[in-house]
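Can't paste images in this forum, so I'm doing it all in text. The chain is below; anyone willing to post the predicted structure tokens underneath?
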Amino acid sequence: MIPISSVPVRILLVDDMPTNLKVLSEALQGQGWKTLMATDGESAIEQAEYALPDLILLDVMMPGIDGFETCQRLKENANVRQIPIIFMTALSDSVNRVRGLELGAVDYITKPFQQEEVIARVKLHLSISQLNLSLQAKIAEQAETEAQLQQLAQDLEQRVLDRTAELEASLQQLKMAQIQLVQSEKMSTLGQLVAGVGHEINNPVNFVSGNLKHINDYTQDLFTLIQMYQRQDSAADIAEFIEEVDLEYLSEDLPKVISSIHEGVDRLRDISLSLRSFARSDISSKAEFQVHEGIESTLMLLKHRLKANEKHPEIQIIRNFAEMPPISCYPGQLNQVFMNLIANAIDAFEEQNEGRSYEEIAASPNVIWISTEVNREDQTISIRVKDNGLGILPDVQSQIFEPSFTTKPIGKGTGLGLPISRQIVMEKHGGRLECSSVRSQGTEFTIVLPI
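Text version of the structure:
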């Protein structure tokens, strides 16, 4: 599109009050803009189709078809639907405002007019319209991929937010957007957590359930034998029943079954403790926390992704833990960081293993090294999570902490895990989160936290 400053901007004014048209026209022409006028909806639609104005100021209450119907018909017309429409109204109720926005209007101006506000809003939406048209032209010319289109849309949205930073409403929208992004990543982490708990609970529950059937059969046989003794059945009948139920085997196996059930219950208790440790509620204040406990809880909840299956052997976890004092922190948030880093390493292995056979993977196994150390001189601790995956390209490595940047397929990553992890480490704990990677050798993330 030709830049706004190089040709006169045409603005269509639609109002059944000539006085309003005159006041608005003089104010807008003072900015070097050309104005077109219509006093009803039908003529407004005709002029819009003929003149293709850059923006329409549309009164709501008019004879004939009102502003809402006029807006709806303009938005249904493919030739003019892209023209931004700003409603002018004395109606202040939110229902009418919402109705206008749902029909496709971009803003509202409340009567009586404040000339400065009208000019400011018109300038703003002309700029937004210019940016939208420029973006569409670039998309058509460059045939961007869907992921690149999404990034461009986000860039455009950010540029619009930057331009409207002085407006209180826009600032509030930005805050809400940030909250939603954080919530989105929390839901992503919660999804992994729920999947892990589901997998880990399923095995011991099935184990306990299966053994309970054996215990039920064994106890029924024992009760039957006791009743035979109480009835003083013949020794031959009792001996026959003992041989039938294999009492010797039963007496050996029953304690083993009970012991196995205890193991399953202990496993469920460990999972419950890990879940409670991982999801500690600590938003309001810091708490003393054992870092190793958080790491182990995270590994427990990711165990279903680490264990061997028909596609790959078990992902090895090699621990190198130093004696670690408790630190004052937000445990639940640090656990979210551990979850993001370890899950990213597992994702890297899944990408690396595509097209490789089980034997090929076993010959060069996937390994995650987790190490901790204490630096007494500067009173910090370090946690390192390293993998032997594909590594990260240098140009990608420079972007991994940028919000919404991701190399994962659409639907597999939000692009928020690492930015939020860095925010948690740096802003919430006064630490550092760093990344070093060598292509085809692996990636290492280092967390440094004050004790």
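The chain has a mean pLDDT of 81. The two ends are 57 Å apart (CA to CA).
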